[in-house]
Amino acid sequence: MIVAPDAERSAVGHAITTLTPLRVKEFKVAGKPAGYAVSGTPADCVKLAVGALLGRRPDLVVSGINLGPNTATNVIYSGTVSAATEARILGVPSIAVSLGTFADPIWPTAASYARRVAATVLRRGLPERVLLNVNVPNLPLRQVKGIAVTRQGVSAYEELYDLRLDPRKVPYYWAAGSYRMSDVDPQSDALALHNGYVSVTPITFDLTAHTVLDEIRRWRFR
Amino acid sequence: MIVAPDAERSAVGHAITTLTPLRVKEFKVAGKPAGYAVSGTPADCVKLAVGALLGRRPDLVVSGINLGPNTATNVIYSGTVSAATEARILGVPSIAVSLGTFADPIWPTAASYARRVAATVLRRGLPERVLLNVNVPNLPLRQVKGIAVTRQGVSAYEELYDLRLDPRKVPYYWAAGSYRMSDVDPQSDALALHNGYVSVTPITFDLTAHTVLDEIRRWRFR
Fold first, then answer.
1. Is residue A22 scored above 80 in pLDDT?
2. Dist. CA A93–CA A88, nearest whole Å
3. What is the interface size between A and B, counted as CB pairs within 8 Å?
4. Every domain of chain A and the residues it spans
5. CB distance B159–A51 less than 8 Å?
């Protein structure tokens, strides 16, 4: 069953819709009912699917396949990852799948690995509050080097903005920063993908920085 | 210097605006220039402030004070927290401050603790990739029990939706789930706040589930 936004939603992060209603349209593929198009965000789609649209709780939510990688700091902005995260919040095992290109996608490679990772998760289950973020290189299947279990990298976009004038000479800004690949750790998602591996990163929505808790407990706040 | 969305942005998570331009208006407080109103999300405001609007890099970003707590699973949906996270991604120390009420806010209490935590961060710095998520109980200053350094809790909203008919009898859905307080750990943000403490949670944007990496490295994906 497919439940998806009714148009592209880029960089919406984990936005959810509470102040306005959501419209839902059934859609067909090859003449047969295939799913629902929702006037909301990817995370809305999962909440609505589990809360209202599906007759029963799903065994697994697969979010994607997204056109474009969701590695390193981009994971934070990703609607694809957020939809999978929302499923895990609701207690449903989930994976997010993204393809490492913005043009000329080789979908069958990503589909093949999505199926393998999904089957593995269905068989083994997932640790509590953990989901898998999968990024597939845009290569023919035979050229993929294998699966690498990775960490989230540190590469990010630059915070550059163009200042322009509209037709009425009123200024506006437009995000213009480009992606700065700065990962050097071969076990990072960004570099593994770059090197031709399918990157599988276990991620969590527990944002607590557990390793510094003790240090900060010793601080005097004044 | 204040840089803020030009209207309320609730539950936008870490959405950022790349496909459309951003408008910026200077605004005054008591006749003096005080900051900028931006036609974007909280995270946009920080990116734009650091990338274009401010003359120099800020020493600290304070996001908030938000009307309403950002504890437990709500941290994921929070525009307030995402703005602070964006600052930290850009390398600027940051804190997010939220007030534990939706009505009759006692702002001076939150402001007082925001100042204390901000001063402490300016003095001590923050660990790499870590920021502080601060939630202040809506109490007179003297009734606050102190500061508790906490973990992110597990409480969440229920995934309930109302199915309704619009004036033209077309159905629509509206998020109707209520917050289900399920935290029992007194060191969780939600329960500390509930118990009258200022909750300070060190959080990170490294979502890697480090504790399960070794386990998942042993999986055979097939």
1. yes
2. 6
3. 215
4. 2-155+184-217
5. yes
The DSSP 8-state label assigned to residue A197 in this structure reads P
Q: What is the residue whose two structure tokens read 């589990």?
A: A50
Residue A147, amino acid: I
Question: Whole-model pTM?
Answer: 0.94
Residue A22: list chain B partners with CB under 8 A: 161, 172-175
- Other CB atoms within 10 Å distance of the CB of residue B122: 12
Q: Are A201 and A81 in contact (CB under 8 A)?
A: no
Assess B139–A contact: CB distance below 8 Å, yes or no: no
Coil, strand or helix at B127: coil
CATH number of B2-154+183-217: 3.40.1210.10
| Contact map slice: B 190-209 vs A, CB within 8 A | 200-209
pLDDT at position B13 over 80? no
Contacts (Cβ under 8 Å, ≥6 apart) of A136: A65, A97, A98, A99, A100, A109, A110, A113, A114, A144, A193, A198
Confidence of residue A10 (pLDDT cuts 50, 70, 90): confident
Residue B25 burial by Cβ neighbours in a 10 Å radius (0-12, 13-18, 19+): exposed
The shortest C-alpha distance from A195 to chain B (Å) reads 18
A47-75, pLDDT tens digit by residue? 999 999 998 999 999 999 999 999 999 99
Asked if the C-beta of A210 comes within 8 angstroms of chain B's C-beta atoms, the answer is: yes
- Interface check B159 vs A, CB under 8 A: yes
From chain A, the residues in CB contact with B210 under 8 A are 151
Q: What stretches of B32-188 adopt beta strand conformation (E)?
A: 32-38, 61-67, 94-99, 130-136, 147-149, 156-157, 161-165, 171-175, 179-180
The beta-strand segments (E) located in A58-177 are 61-67, 94-99, 130-136, 147-149, 156-157, 161-165, 171-175
Query: Which among A89, A166, A208 is the nearest to B201, CB-wise?
Result: A208
CA distance A103 to chain B (A): 17
For chain B, the average pLDDT equals: 94
pLDDT in tens, A96-108: 999 999 999 999 9
> Residue B162: its pLDDT value, please?
93
Are B46 and B16 in contact, with CB atoms under 8 Å apart?
A: no
**Dist. CA B18–CA B23, nearest whole Å:** 13
Closest in A11, A51, A208 to B18, CB measured? A11
CATH number of A2-155+184-217: 3.40.1210.10
Choose the mutation target among B85, B124, B134, B161 for the interface with A, i.e. most A CBs under 10 Å.
B161
